[in-house]
Design a protein that fits this description.
There is one protein chain. The chain has a 3-stranded antiparallel β-sheet with strand order 3-4-5. It has a two-stranded antiparallel sheet with strand order 1-2. α7 runs parallel beside α17 and α11 runs antiparallel to α12. It is mainly α and about 425 residues long. The longest helix has 18 residues. The chain is built from 17 helices and 7 strands. The chain is globular.
Length: about 425
């Protein structure tokens, strides 16, 4: 295009000839068409769909359900949130007796979405004090698991999804509350990102994102830098980093978002729409020492993550719509109110069942009921049966007494927020 403009300037005669030949119209035909406003993502329009309301529930009832769920998780007798002293708190995975970066960063995301600044600040202070490495090869990263019985680390190493959510929630906090209220959220987000970019392999520690493949790593240490977890692929978060991190890497983050979208096509290619918990960067299964390949707990998050990208940015709508159709169609074939929570990717029942804490049992889990309902956001003909199933589900013990307010509960609240239009890409406040 620059050469064409130079040519135009060089000769008025040439310009006249080009116009006569219709080059201008050809160029216009080749120009990408702007995305119609109706197809743009909510990040651009500010319009987040409220599928719960479309399903017939009143806004008052929706607000009440969200408030009650938050109260149960953060304040009730089965809460997962525990305050420490005057200024700190942690979220605990009760069934595994630990506080992990997954839950702490999820808690921060819930807090910023629901405008709970004190809760957000307490969780961040605890995480920074107890989990963030201040020096050495892991400086800036977080130890992923802390034993809430011994109050000591279970592991020094990070898990990349924790940092992913920490950074994104801090950027949202910066946008929502500013950086002059006691914590400079933007500075804290940059500390993590800048530390990641400085990792050069010393001690086996590298960037959270595999630089060559432009994909988030399972763990940015050793061989685990070379494979991934499909549920860590949140193209919407990469777009947010490109917009608000302002660390000079915006083109890279946007490329990562596009790479994740292409990766998810491969990872979710099965007719069932199911993916493996862990994969190579190609989407092929990656076996681990703790479980053979299959669709298990991590994978529950994938439909919710893809729905987030569909709503927020809308850059891959056609594939995301057909993915949601395959995924929900498979679960419906297993019974809308009976589908189990672990599968082989071909849809068959697995021989190996991954335990949840000390419990080894397939069940119709609230977490997967929740995220499968979030997938309805991607349907041109929303499958409201999944939405009604979520609405009717209870955050309560199962018939056998098993109860997981941590993972089931957080995915339930995340999905309620998505389906009500309240889980948003938070932009800077305009004062």
């Amino acid at each position: 295009m620059r050469k064409l403009f130079a040519f135009f300037n060089h000769s008025k005669v040439s310009l006249l000839l080009l116009c006569l030949l219709g080059v201008g119209s050809v160029a216009a035909q080749r120009a990408p068409k702007p995305v119609p406003a109706s197809q743009q993502g909510a990040f651009y329009t500010g319009k987040y769909p409220n599928l719960l309301q479309e399903a017939g529930y009143s806004q008052a009832a929706i607000d009440q359900k969200i408030a009650q769920t938050y109260q149960a998780l953060f304040e009730g007798p089965e809460k997962i949130y525990f305050e420490v002293g005057d200024s700190m708190a942690y979220v605990s995975d009760l069934k595994n007796h630990d506080a992990r970066t997954e839950g702490l960063s999820y808690g921060m995301m819930l807090a910023v979405q629901l405008d709970k600044k004190e809760v957000f600040d307490r969780l961040w202070r605890w995480s920074k004090k107890n989990l963030q490495h201040q020096d050495g090869p892991l400086a800036g990263y977080f130890a992923w698991s802390f034993n809430t019985t011994t109050m000591k680390l279970n592991s020094e190493g990070p898990a990349s999804d924790g940092e992913l959510y920490f950074v994104t929630s801090l950027l949202f906090a910066s946008n929502r509350w500013g950086n002059a209220t006691g914590i400079n959220y933007y500075q804290q987000a940059r500390r993590i990102l800048d530390a990641s970019w400085k990792k050069d392999g010393t001690g086996g520690v590298r960037n959270l994102i595999n630089i060559e493949h432009k994909q988030i790593t399972f763990v940015p240490v050793g061989d685990m830098y070379n494979w991934t977890d499909p549920s860590y692929h949140l193209p919407a978060f990469m777009e947010v980093w490109a917009e608000y991190a302002k660390d000079g890497h915006a083109p890279f983050y946007r490329a990562c978002a596009d790479t994740s979208r292409a990766f998810l096509h491969r990872a979710c290619a099965a007719p069932t729409g199911l993916n493996y918990d862990y994969t190579e960067f190609s989407g092929a299964p990656h076996a681990t020492k703790w479980a053979p390949p299959g669709f298990r707990y991590d994978s529950w998050r994938v439909p919710m993550n893809i729905a987030m990208d569909y709503v927020w940015f809308g850059k891959d709508k056609a594939w995301q719509q057909q993915y949601a159709g395959r995924f929900q169609g498979f679960l419906r074939s297993k019974g809308l109110n009976t589908f189990e929570d672990q599968f082989n990717v071909d849809g068959s029942r697995p021989d190996f069942i991954l335990p949840a804490g000390d419990v080894k049992k397939l069940r119709h889990s609230l977490g997967l009921v929740s995220t499968s309902a979030a997938a309805s956001l991607m349907r041109q003909d929303p499958q409201l049966a999944f939405v009604h199933a979520l609405w009717d589900a209870k955050l309560a013990p199962y018939a056998d007494g098993y109860f997981d307010p941590y993972y089931d509960g957080i995915l339930y609240l995340f999905s309620l927020l998505h389906l009500s239009g309240k889980y948003q890409a938070i932009k800077p406040s305009v004062h």
